[in-house]
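During the no-cost extension, the postdoctoral fellow (Dr. R.K.) reprocessed legacy sequence entries with the updated structure-token encoder. One reprocessed record is reproduced below for audit purposes.
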Amino acid sequence: MKYPSLDHDHRRAGLLALTALTASLLIGIQLALISWQGEAACFNDGCRVVEGLTRVSAFTFNLFGLLFFLCICLLSLLTDNRPTLARLLSLLLLAAMAGEGVLLAYQYHVARTWCSYCLIIFGLATLCNLLVGLRQLFRSAVLIAAVNIIFALLRFEPVSQAGLDSGLTAGTAAVRPGTGAGRSVFLIYAKDCPHCLALLRKLPEYAACTIRLNPVGDPPEVDIPDLERMIDFQPEKNLQLLRTLQIDAVPVLVATETDGYRILRSESAIAAYLQTNCTEAAESPTPATEPSGPGPNILPDDLESLLPPAQDEECRVDVECADPLPPYFEPAEPSR
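Re-encoded structure tokens follow.
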């Protein structure tokens, strides 16, 4: 059975316009929430992670989507006996599905989390293509499959020494400056974790190091002397790092070493490291330290990792890290 083209089917054109208008209203609500509250609504933490990986703001991203769906709605109402406009509409919807395919592949292969709001928009875009016709839907599926195949063939390496440092800096909510030229450490924590709060209460003892506080959510209201709070920070960067390292518990300490980074877990291991390296009695700002427990070196050579198994002195956080380690964590071959 052959269906009439969109420019001769008023019912399908009307449904397409209604679907595009629904998407526009949804995006408009998100824009209003971003303007009033500073963040969009989402059913999971994946939205914040994905937003933190874009070069433009969430407001700009949603504004482009609003303009696109309004354009689709307008073209749907003007396609009556205008085959040229109908072909233009089909082309724009295919372009949208190509973009959605890139976003889906990026979430799966790079961000390793799903944005529920993005999936809703993807569903509405798919419905728009279905209303154009089954052939249009098939072409959309081919585009999405091609994009995902290409992404699957690529190798992404988001964790490097420079990338790790910039991500941690963006996720810093407050800084306790050190008294001397000691090392700089990042403490990733949660405000409702008693082991994290115990470490925060001991921070005045570790005055020789600059300690940057990186919460996975809202920072707690703690009274720490000489604490400098950041005006803006991105806690999703800290969640992204934990997800990448396959760590599902806090506290986690990332210490800057001369040849990379050292990563420690659990309250006792972190406290022992800070006591050895960040107290006034420390003889050197960068002394050699003994590992506090066994742990695989899963990072590249320039990132020294110490990841002991989860202990009782940790609090689990939801970072969805049940997937196996990605291939870019395989130890690099030594340079010749």
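The radius of gyration is 25 Å. The domain at 6-153 is CATH 1.20.1440.130 (de novo design (two linked rop proteins)). The remaining legacy entries will be reprocessed before the final report is submitted.
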